[in-house]
Design goal:
By secondary structure, the protein is an alpha+beta fold. Helix content is 30%, strand content 35%.
């Protein structure tokens, strides 16, 4: 067997991985059906904030949540996270996850205010910062 470095965007590799993961999941009775979603908040036709997330198997994962610097602490982030949680519940999600770093102190405080709890700390992770995985059970 020969191992070579390849571009991960290769169509044959993409086709192979999709096919093999589908077989693997079917063998084990899993329904892998990840879907990506996003919402944007607007203020006078200007984007004020944005949230993107994935849903799969009853779990929702926030990929990014960002609010315009000028509109932070104005409620835009709270509106977006509530919309996300409402959408996730509607799509039968029982838990939500996200990750943030020690450098994002405002974000950490924001998520804690919205009842997200740190469930894991990844020490000296990306960019040599501590990162936190947070979760919240959706009732």
């Amino acid at each position: 067997m020969k191992i070579i470095k390849v571009n991960s965007k290769n169509k044959n590799i993409d086709k192979f991985t999709k096919s093999e993961w589908k077989k693997f999941n079917e063998e084990r009775g899993y329904k892998y059906n990840e879907k990506k979603h996003s919402f944007a908040a607007f203020d006078n036709k200007k984007v004020a904030g944005f949230i993107s997330f994935k849903i799969n198997g009853g779990a929702a994962f926030i990929s990014q949540l960002i609010v315009s610097r000028k509109l932070r602490n104005s409620g835009v982030g709270s509106i977006l996270i509530k919309k996300f949680e409402q959408f996730a519940r509607k799509h039968k999600c029982h838990i939500a996850y996200l990750e943030t770093s020690e450098r994002h102190r405002e974000a950490l405080k924001f998520y804690k205010k919205h009842n997200y709890k740190i469930i894991a700390t990844l020490k000296n992770n990306k960019f040599h910062f501590n990162w936190y995985i947070m979760s919240k059970f959706l009732k």
